[in-house]
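User: Show me sequence and structure for the first protein, then do the same for the second.

Assistant: Starting with the first protein.
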Amino acid sequence: MKLFLSLALFAAFLLCPAACAEGVRDGLSLAAGRALPALVPFFLASGLLVRTGFAETFGRLLARPLARLYRLPPAAASAVLLGLTGGYPVGAATAAALLGQGALRREEAARVNLFCNCASPGFCIGLVGLGVFGSARTGAVLYGIHALSALLAGLLTARDGSPQRLPPNGMLPVHAPREGFAAAFCAAVQQAAATSLTVTAFLAVFSILLRLLAPVLAPIPYGQALAGVIELTNGLDRLTALPLSRGGLVTLASFLLGFGGLAVHFQVRALAAPQDLPMAGFTAAKLLHGAIAALLTALVFRLSPAALAVFAPVAPSARGWPAAAAALSAFVLLFAIWGGKRAKNKV
């Protein structure tokens, strides 16, 4: 299978050079215009905070919630916080850095990585809220649902560890070396540069794939939604072309935000590999995140449509979408739980 996929990609690149070139331009434009301006400061902050002991200091504040709800040590607090606010894939970068510093064990880093990779508030409000739906409030509500869904998904995927026993000061013993600020800053800049290059490369490659798959996706009903499963930003930009109601569009956008797109999944894998951070159950966890987000969004839209007001023009849709969305989300939810259980013994 691996050989077949490699040959298929080689043939596509060889036979469609113009589409590949356009894909590279799309990816580089996306990286320079949207992704890196939002992510690089958080990549730098992540590396700097981990290297200067922030994980230990901040962990004292969240020691008990992390231990009781997720059975995680206090050092995981920085990965959770930065993952919820920094954008994809800052959470994975932080978890990998904590593992490399010795602040988290391998199994603990793997569990926190299952739910600490989220879209940033700026991405949800700016690109999704204002850019897609013409409403900053819609983006803010979607971010709140997105963050809550991540924490709820973590309760179902990240509680496999043994209960944490905290010492009186609220900290577990950590053997991470401390660095001076100058050394930590230089190392954090180098780490941020390497991570940014990884993100840019994956955006370019997946933009190529979208260009190559465009003729295939075009005739497929709701093919634009499949584009979002492959690469999140491109898929979100194409949402309003789908023949769905306002509630259906917002619910689908919420699912895509939770799932993150395959481009993000591969970025996380690339960041995890150098530290040998296990990835078992990651895709199932992201499916679960997306399903919970979609169900919560559909519920909020039904109870209070004004909370998710949409001002951008949307196409009319069939009446059966709400029931179909609920059925699809339930199926994804069950599949994600089943997949997560299968992955437990592999971490």
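Switching to the second protein now.
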Amino acid sequence: MKMKLASYVLVLFTILSCNSSAQTKKLSLEPKKGKAIAVFAEGCFWCSEHIFEAVVGVDEAVSGYTGGTTKNPSYEQVSSHRTGHAEAVAVYYDPKIISFKELVNVFFASHDPTTPNQQGPDYGSSYRSIAFYRNAEEKKIILDKIKELTVNKVFLDPIVTEVKPLSDFYEAEDYHQNYIKHNPNEPYVKGVSIPRYQKFKKTYKGKLKPNS
């Protein structure tokens, strides 16, 4: 069911927040020694960041923009759906604790991959579902997962997730980082982000951090 009221709230918030003059910057995709990085787009990055950071083995998730061609895009530009970019998260993790395969499981367990250019009440190409890969092995893991979900008919509709090589990732403006933590009473957070996170917690079979 589409949450139209939440959509109106989001539009209003977008208009107000986009007056920020903050600049974005390209994020280094080279993790520290012994660490790894994965990038996913699955709708509003506020909730995606919150979800991935709750998973054991994840050190940090950074909100940003990727998948398009515009350099150093602003939130306002990405929200216009004309840059080719999607809201995404760069997930820094410890491969000794959690695998890329398990992060792909988190990705598909935490959003609806069957709605093209939409996630919940959010519409437009910047909210599309994308799983990024760094090498042939990661690409195979993603494609195998899509095949598994399709064969087992986990979703009623076909999966429309794009599978793309990892490209430049631009870190979103500071006010987007850890947004749920800093704005727990914001209407969109209370009406959309938190319910989505709670749904994920009920269905995800992997390990979550205490008090997450």
